[in-house]
Amino acid sequence: MLTPMVAGGVVFPGLFLLSKSTLQRLPQLRWEEADAVIVSARLVSSVQAIMASTAGYIVSTSCKHIIDDQHWLSSAYTQFAVPYFIYDIYAMFLCHWHKHQVKGHGGDDGAARAPGSTWAIARGYLHKEFLMVLHHAAMVLVCFPLSVVWRQGKGDFFLGCMLMAEVSTPFVCLGKILIQYKQQHTLLHKVNGALMLLSFLCCRVLLFPYLYWAYGRHAGLPLLAVPLAIPAHVNLGAALLLAPQLYWFFLICRGACRLFWPRSRPPPAFQTQD
């Protein structure tokens, strides 16, 4: 177990530092540190998402029996990804810190900051990203022990499907980068927004009904009978995982409405000339 976790602890922070250094030092780029940090964090998130969804696809398609079949990649990648969630909490804080600095709330010239400013930034970060931080903490403190210990080698198919929920993450990251650099008007942003909406709906929201349907087909039960046939704590866990996905999907839908159907500005008032 230790080897995959150590590897993840090296790969994700290492990729972040490599990307940040490259963006800052390449003569063709020479990005400011804030831009390099934010884009590098998005890049690492996208790489992790591609790796997770690929591993999930391999596992889910390899397990013909959805309960008993096993694949070595399910436990290996779960252990490998644990350091990512810890790293990403810090990476998100760095992004928040640099955005705060860019807005002029901190001195870039090394001047002393007001007492308590760092704590104020940290509180602002936790307030803004509370749900995401809670999600990452739950993945490390709850989902990881459950997947390694409680499953006892069963249900690799379901774990593989859960890993494929990361399919939407690269589109989310690209969308945030385009918004940050004021590219909302471009065709790329609109196409990416449509792909983000579709992938999030299919791979995160509809994932849970699909898992219930897959178990029902395995057990010979109709979909609506599955919640009554499985333990209550499984239904509770699924509901807790689904709730933030529904909230984030609502935010994505609201953003899509603003993107594709912007509110028309009221016509200017008619002015008479004397």
Automatic annotation (TrEMBL):
The keyword Nucleotidyltransferase does not apply. The lineage of its organism: Eukaryota, Metazoa, Chordata, Craniata, Vertebrata. It is a multi-pass membrane protein. GO terms for biological process: ceramide biosynthetic process; lipid homeostasis; negative regulation of fat cell differentiation. GO terms for cellular component: endoplasmic reticulum; membrane. The chain crosses the membrane at residues 130-151, 157-179, 191-212, 232-253. Pfam families: TRAM_LAG1_CLN8. This is TLC domain containing 3B. It is found in: Membrane. Keywords: Membrane, Transmembrane, Transmembrane helix.
